[in-house]
Amino acid sequence: MTESLVELFKKTPPELIDKVVYLSVGRIAPEYTGLDYNFGEKLAMRALAEVLGIDEHTTEEKTIELGDLGDAGKALYEEKGFKPKDKLSVEEVYRTLSEIAKTSGYGALKKKVELFKELLSKASPIEVKYLLRTVIERLRLGIGDNTIMDALAVAFTGNQENRVHIERAYNLTSDLGYVARILVEKGLEGVKTIKIEVGRPVRPMLAERMSVPSLILKKLGGRCGAEYKYDGERIQAHRKGDQFWLYSRRLENITHQFPDLIEFLKGAIPYDFIVELECVVIEPSSGQIQPFQVLMNRRVKYVSRFHILKYPVAGFLFDILYLDGEDLTTKPYPERRKTLEKVVKTTDRVNLATRKVVSSVEELESFFHEAIEEGCEGIVCKSLAKESIYEAGKRGFLWIKYKRDYKSHLADTLDLVVVGAFYGKGQRAGYFGSLLMACYDSETDQFKTVCKVGTGFTEDDFKKLDGILKEHGIEHRHPRVNSILSADMWFEPFLVLEITGAELTLSPVHTCAWDKVKPSRGLGLRFPRFTGKYRFDKRPEDATTEQEIIEMYLQQKQYKAG
Ligand SMILES: Nc1ncnc2c1ncn2[C@@H]1O[C@H](COP(=O)(O)OP(=O)(O)OP(=O)(O)O)[C@@H](O)[C@H]1O
Predict the structure, then answer these.
(1) Which residues bind ATP per the record (predicted)?
(2) 322 within some domain
(3) Residue 63: enclosing H or E segment and its boundaries?
């Protein structure tokens, strides 16, 4: 895949490189812009039928027969011997898809279909296949960010090692098309000068996990800043004058979801800023933090006064990345925390994450218990060293989370991707009884199985999951899924669920860490259980990685050995 992309990028005229990068993942702009086509499968079938002058039913039947609209389009074009009226160019495809994405309001659907028909009328059978998949947002080429970054490094610098510079720029801007353009126009030196900007989300810094307090302290040099780990939604808030942007953990623009939070932040920090906070629902009279599930009620398309009053939110700020023209990501954590303390006028709705500098196991343990009592998940222990910069897009030991579950040997819950399912029995016959769950391997860009989970689901969960999964069913194992087990149903990797379990063990059937810990064995999770938490805030590529699971397994061995 990387080699093909290198070849493509080398052939791409410089002024088109950003567009080709976006189109290779089926988009016309970075994900954070939220620019989607809003073009359902039905609409695509209609456009296809009208261009070919056939019945819509025929396109539908062909799609059912082949299991994919793209394949159906290609087959129908070939059967009809369709002659395109012209040749397609990248510019035209990009321009038309952009128009489709931006068309909304009265008469939008008709206009979208007309625009798309124009593209279809100029397409060859293979182009039809990918145009259809693109517009219904199921391109599924299996190209991830990592593949694109590797290919850019090789194509334009001749050396894959230069990917680190591309990655740094990407982590600060979350826009690979933009980084690619700077690379082509200004070379690697240009890429090295890319800085964070208000309005463009910064890819989040993430925490490592450890389950032994003494080892956490040792790792952090005997002393650390321990902060409550609030169990809410991570938000990155940006302000430029009166303009605000809120981004979710997966960098979706969620500004419209929290107008109340924006008002609170406006009053609390009277400067331009980029801050990070955990947003939770509180019980207004007592300030008591409500469970994560309550916050899910605010995940609606249109937030009304009802939502704002029924589910009042508060933000606990834990980092600041930018203040009035100054990039703070290169400053150490104690300095960033001090800045937060200085500039934030705290209220009952905007507060700083409760924090204590601890230097003994007793202090750390007692702070942890205090956090749990306050309704938190645990604590995040942060390095106080001068190297403790904000590492965008990285999971490292500058932050270590500690969230112990006494019933489990795991240092943390796992966020796994649903890739398949097995039929249930009795009332659930014909529906799923258990789900095949996978972790993410960023090196191979694959999803590898870890467990089959059938417990922890309520009746409501079954109903909700049946609905969600129906939309993402596919005929065969997805090409990015690596599984020995043969599931009854397969899904495209899409949905991330939080799973807990008793312990990680060597497994002859799960492909996670295959051959990496022991020959012909992988790692599996024993007694897996769904915690009830849907991780809509994570993309499949944000799921727990194979490498993390290997580290958790090694830690668990160490922990059990005392
Ligand atoms: N004081 C805090 N400092 C940093 N992160 C915090 C804090 N309180 C809550 N959090 C949350 O904890 C997360 C850090 O854990 P991690 O980096 O593993 O993210 P994650 O993969 O979303 O995992 P998790 O499932 O534990 O939230 C942050 O993404 C943030 O949402």
Answers:
(1) 227, 234, 249, 278, 318, 395, 401
(2) yes
(3) helix 56-66
